[in-house]
Write the structure tokens for this entry.
Amino acid sequence: MRSVILCEGSTDFVLLQYYMRKVYGWEYKKNESVLINDYKARKCVLKKDHSELNIIGCGGCSRIPGGLQFILDSNSLSAEDEAYDRIVIITDRDEVETESEFETIIATELGKQQIEWKDDISNDKWIDFHYENGQGDNCNAKLLLLVIPFEDTGAMETFLLDAIGKANPYDAKIISDCNQFVDNVDNQKKYLNKRRYITKAKFDVYFSVRTAAEQFVERQNILKNIPWEDYAEIQNSFKKLDDLTE
């Protein structure tokens, strides 16, 4: 089986590598870049038994549709045993409308390729689709949309902090105090002038408290050294990723 996860940026890209290796036993094979619409996207390739998993950081929410188009184009040109059997899209619920917007985007991209599917496209649900490749073979594949958090608006960092807070009341209080500090510290919006910056700052401020003695210097180290697999909410949200193994 050959699968691909399309995600937004560096946080998702690093977390998903760690999570798939730690929880589901995938092994690292290589990192490389792939050119998608003139953007050099990061790709990590993992292996498990006879299965391959590609995790692609598309470089932001707006580039995920191009990433999906790239994968569908690749499938249309590939032999059946070289195509992606499972496609997963993971994105932040930045706005209330994010889920419906991505359902429409997926339907549009599938339609461009004259791909057939039956079930409604919806969050946290695999859909089966059928297509004909360049060699005239009729092929089957599946696609999964994960808009996280499932219920509230927020980014991956918000989702991770919420999972920690729900598991530990003490940490929940620290997270709340850190969030309040970030909300008030730059009242002229000189530095934290975008919502994305504010979200990342809240994440980093909390971990600067939690991991102060370890002196983490990079976000990547933070993501790799926290046992995310121990948090029930994260396990529940990512449980369908177990379907990427034969």
